[in-house]
Amino acid sequence: MVQPLLKYPDPRIRLISANVRFFNDELLQWINDMVDTMKANDLEALSAIMIGIQYNVIVIKNEDEYFPYINARLIKCIGTSNQTERSIYYEGISVDVDRFDNATVIYEDVKGEAHHQDLSGDAARVFQQQLDYSFGSTFVDRVDKEMKQRINDHLEFGLIASSSTCPLVFVRDYFKRGAKYVMALIFLSFIVPFFASEEVRQLIYQIDIYLLLAVPVLMIAYFFYALYESRLYKQCTSCQIGNIIGTTAIMASQLLIVGLGVFFWVAP
User: What is the pLDDT of residues 50-105, one digit of tens each?
Assistant: First the structure.
């Protein structure tokens, strides 16, 4: 039976598929549904999670036959190449992705018997794409940070993350960025004494005072929101309390330097 495919922004794409422990009629029905869905959507390969089945089952088409790979793993990989990939989950998006050119895989068949197979070229790439889905990943997890951010900004709801992954953008970073921008603006006022009159210098000094008062407010907001995010994303190294305190201390030292500059250099 043809099953609906997972499409963005369905969060189930981030589920990690379990190993199959039973080799019975239910497993055969899943595979039949996957094959029917592949035929209906003209697909060359499909991972079970893409039709909502959270088990490590992959079906790949070879000419007119459909081969199931159950509990598949990569055990040997050689060489890499970069090619453009598309996803049936993230429709309308294509990115260049590095994949292994040659891969040896182990898997089980519908009877639970173990096999291994050497794949190369497009066959190896297609297999790796489907294995990503089985382990809660997509091709966007294999691109650099800049490209990932561009994709995140392009999507209506951003990239789909799970509780086991770190978000691409932390809200606390906006507070940190705001504090840095304010201090950078204050730093620009250090050129005022070289050319400004006393009246202008006095005005700039007053503005700097207000800006200096804004920085601690942003720092405090950063610190407490960072603590909140550290409870949400305990697995992220950047969420550890030591990193948060260290970042706050760096901003405090920067504020001290800028503040001294205002009072001893900009002040009329």
Answer: 999 999 999 999 999 999 999 999 988 899 999 999 988 998 899 999 999 999 99
Kindly state the DSSP code that residue 6 receives in the 8-state scheme: P
Encoded amino acid at 89, one letter? Y
- Check residue 92 and give left, alpha or beta (phi > 0: left; psi -120 to 50: alpha): left
Q: Are 179 and 222 in contact (CB under 8 A)?
A: yes
Count how many Cα atoms sit within 13 Å of the Cα of residue 47 in the half-sphere of its side chain: 32
The model scores a pTM over 0.70: no
Of 79, 84, 3, nearest to 40 by C-alpha is 3
Beta bridge partners of 62: 65
Q: Contact 161/12 with Cβ under 8 angstroms?
A: no
CA nearest to 168, candidates 176, 160, 177: 160
**Hey, which residues does 114 pair with through a beta bridge?**
108
